[in-house]
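Fill in residues.
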């Protein structure tokens, strides 16, 4: 099991490697026994994300959770990804979200964003999918959740 600081370090490395302005790791529990929160966020300009809950199908993070596949969103998109609460709160022009799949289900989401318009190449998407799966392997979702639950 990785501790919260190791996961933060991994996220910081991904943020730097991808030249992203924002990166967030959210936990998702389909049973709703726990709140579906953003566990770690780096590069944020506000704390509004703390008030936002992950909901399947809402915004790009929710789209990744619902479909179990990566989702890409742009500020001016007509679909729901363009109306992503985190993108709006953080002033992101483009973002990508990747499901974290463990034990045959989506247990979290990795979201990256930029405040300038950006395209995500197929190679970058593949690398980020791999990063999300690596996070899933080191992340024991609710052990880390319990460590941070009181800090929200």
């Amino acid at each position: 099991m990785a501790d919260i600081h190791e996961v933060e370090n991994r996220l910081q490395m991904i943020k730097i490697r991808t030249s992203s302005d924002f990166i967030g790791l959210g936990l998702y529990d389909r049973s709703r026994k726990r709140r579906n929160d953003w566990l770690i966020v780096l590069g944020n300009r506000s704390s509004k994300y703390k008030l936002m809950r992950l909901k399947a199908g809402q915004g790009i993070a929710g789209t990744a959770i619902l479909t179990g596949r990566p989702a890409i969103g742009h500020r001016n998109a007509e679909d729901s990804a363009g109306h992503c609460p985190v993108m709006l709160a953080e002033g992101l022009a483009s973002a990508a979200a990747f499901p974290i799949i463990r034990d045959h289900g989506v247990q979290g989401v990795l979201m990256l964003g930029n405040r300038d318009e950006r395209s995500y190449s197929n190679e970058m998407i593949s690398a980020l999918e791999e990063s999300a799966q690596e996070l899933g392997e080191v992340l024991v979702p609710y052990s880390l959740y319990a460590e941070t639950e009181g800090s929200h």
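The CA atoms of residues 73 and 79 lie 8 Å apart.
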